[in-house]
Amino acid sequence: MEPELVTWPSSGPIAGGSVLLDVYSLNVFEQREEAVSYEENPPSGFWAPEKCYGFLNTFRYMDAKVVLDKYTIVDPERTRTVYNWLQCFSPESRCAASSRWLDSQS
User: Fold this and answer.
1) Cα separation of 52 and 96, whole Å?
2) What residues contact residue 66 under an 8 Å CB cut-off, 6+ apart?
3) Element (H or E) spanning 100, and its range?
4) Among 87, 89, 54, which residue's Cα sits nearest to residue 68?
5) Model-level pTM?
6) What's the rounded Cα separation, in Å, for the pair 57 and 91?
7) 94 or 59: which leads in pLDDT
8) CA distance linking residue 90 with residue 103, whole number of Å
9) Burial, 72: exposed, middle or buried (Cβ in 10 Å; 0-12, 13-18, 19+)?
10) What percentage of the chain carries pLDDT values higher than 90?
11) Buried b (16+ CB within 10 A) or exposed e, 79-95
């Protein structure tokens, strides 16, 4: 992640305010690869205190610059799926997304 402090102009809905953006860059997107992995008791009881099995499927969506880490956790009581979506931004798309959010606040 690449934190960036954005300071807004002196007029508008959040006049003179600042927002810290902690976003993923396109470098992160380019470094991630689609993959499948399996682990018994992943990582050290994070998902469940008892014995479980974890499956991780990583998908890349090229057009949207999004990475999906899909975790499937199987333990004796249940099976859960957790979707972790990671949106990656170029400096230009990060500014555009920030501007859209700012416009939605007025």
Assistant:
1) 42
2) 60, 85, 86, 87, 88
3) helix 91-104
4) 87
5) 0.71
6) 28
7) 59
8) 20
9) middle
10) 42
11) eeeeeeebebbeeeebe
Q: Which amino acid is at 34?
A: E
Residue 12 zone, left/alpha/beta (φ > 0; ψ -120 to 50; rest): left
Q: What is the helix, strand, coil percentage profile of the chain, to 5?
A: 20, 45, 35
Indicate the residue type of 18: S
Please give the structure tokens belonging to residue 17: 């305010």
Per-residue pLDDT band at 43 (split at 50, 70, 90): confident
Where are the extended beta strands (E) located within 12-78? 18-25, 35-40, 53-61, 66-74
